[in-house]
Amino acid sequence: MKEILVLGCGNVLASDDGVGIVVVRKLAHAPLSQNTRIIDAGVAGVGILDHFNGQEKAIIIDAVAADKEPGTILLFKWGNLPDSSIMPWSLHGMGLLQALELGYQVEPGRMPKELVIVGIQIKRVDAWRDGLCKEVEAAVPEAVRMVLNELEVKDNA
């Protein structure tokens, strides 16, 4: 059975931008199969591509700015990705969607066969502010359930 990656992206020192990391930290305590690997990818930018090695599936959790209510969860799959403006260029390099597109163009064999992005609408990104706003914090359990559903794991929460 091939490995499944679950990657959380973001910066926990930039308030809501850290929501992807918060979700994968919660998932680390879930009963997952041995072929599932949880990764805190931080603000990897193009460095996120280093985590891929032909996996069957990858699930990425990240903050989005999609003009929705804070805490709204959006689910995207490869081939039906949003406009890159909702996951803009990062101050740390290339944005997530641009990095993924580059990976599929340059080394498609290394990229996951199935890609899912769980995007959580943020309210604020404040430098050096630890913690999520209440709306984004309230969305974390549902985001965890969505990832578990993608992994076909039954959650008892």
Task: For the structure shown, list the relevant keywords.
157 residues; alpha/beta; Rossmann fold; 5-stranded mixed β-sheet; 3 helices; 22% strand
Strand order of the largest sheet: 2-1-3-5-4
For the biggest sheet, the summary is:
5 strands, mixed
Q: What is the SS-derived class? A: alpha/beta
Q: What is the H/E string?
A: EHEEEHEH
- Computed over alpha carbons, the radius of gyration is 14 Å
Mean pLDDT: 87
Q: According to CATH, what is the class?
A: Alpha Beta
What's the number of structural domains?
Answer: 1
Distance between the termini: 27 Å
Q: What is the CATH topology descriptor?
A: Rossmann fold
Beta strand count: 5
The coarse overall form would be: globular
In the CATH classification, which architecture applies?
3-Layer(aba) Sandwich
Q: State the fourth-level CATH superfamily.
A: HybD-like
- Helical amount among residues, as a percent range? 10-25%
Please work out how many helical segments DSSP would assign.
Answer: 3
Secondary-structure map:
Blueprint: E1 4-9, H1 19-27, E2 36-42, E3 57-64, E4 73-77, H2 96-106, E5 114-121, H3 134-150
Parallel strand pairs: 1-2, 1-3, 3-5
Antiparallel strand pairs: 4-5
Helix pairs in contact: 1-3
